[in-house]
Amino acid sequence: MMSKRGTRVATWKERFFVLKPACLLYYTGPDQKEMKGSIDINNSCAVVPTQEKTCRFIIRTKIKDYELNVSDMKSKNEWITVLQKAIDNDDKDIHYHRDELIKRCQNRWTKKQQLAEEREQQKIRQELIEMKSRELEEEKQARAEAEARLQLETALREADKDHMKELEQLLEEERQAKRDEELVRAAQARVLQEEFEKREELERLKAMQEQLLAEEQSKREGIEEERNKQAQLLAAAKLQLEELQRERSVADEQLQVSGQYHPTTPFLPDRQTNKKNILLF
């Protein structure tokens, strides 16, 4: 396939060219159903490559010039070589053209073979690429699964670490609770010991107080007993005094009756005796 520049309208159109003996035919497509024209190839023609670094070349005939464009420089050089050979061998007999046709057919067949081999190699390369891609995809998937497992294991390890931290924290809290309980027990023991000591002190004070009370009671009982004794002595002294007074009264009466009564001083108890009795009381 080459592009041909129009003569009336300067536009490029794709055409399928076929080189025949003494002419170059061009069609609308590779099926060669519709021929659009032909170019006479003889020794009056010339193939001129463009000066620019493009894939264009010009076929100059007696009638007009045809400007063509190919896809790459290799195709350009091949077409120029083939057309130049056709121009140079225009005056040769038909055998030359037949030989050239055979050569072209052989070259075409060789190219087809090469193309088939290239396609086969390309197919093999494509299969290798696909296989490599599948291997890479499987490796990528395996790596992704490994990374997922690693992330899961990491998450599990982190969870285990968090769980261990929680357990350690709970264990530390339990230890702290035990220490606090021991401190409370020690404080309670100290309080109980202090209470016990206070109770012992109170019991000792109570015993001392009871002893003092007993001693005081004993003293009071002794004093009371002494008082009772003094009261008894005083009562006995009073009785004795009253008895003496009665006896004196009787004696006075008898003396009066007998006429020998002389008034006497009234009986006064001894001051010292009275004072002693008062002190004893």
Automatic annotation (TrEMBL):
This is PH domain-containing protein. PROSITE patterns: PH_DOMAIN. Pfam families: PH. SUPFAM superfamilies: PH domain-like (SSF50729). Gene3D superfamilies: Pleckstrin-homology domain (PH domain)/Phosphotyrosine-binding domain (PTB). Residues 252-273 are annotated as: Disordered. Residues 1-88 form the PH domain. It comes from Octopus bimaculoides. InterPro entries: PH-like_dom_sf (IPR011993), PH_domain (IPR001849).
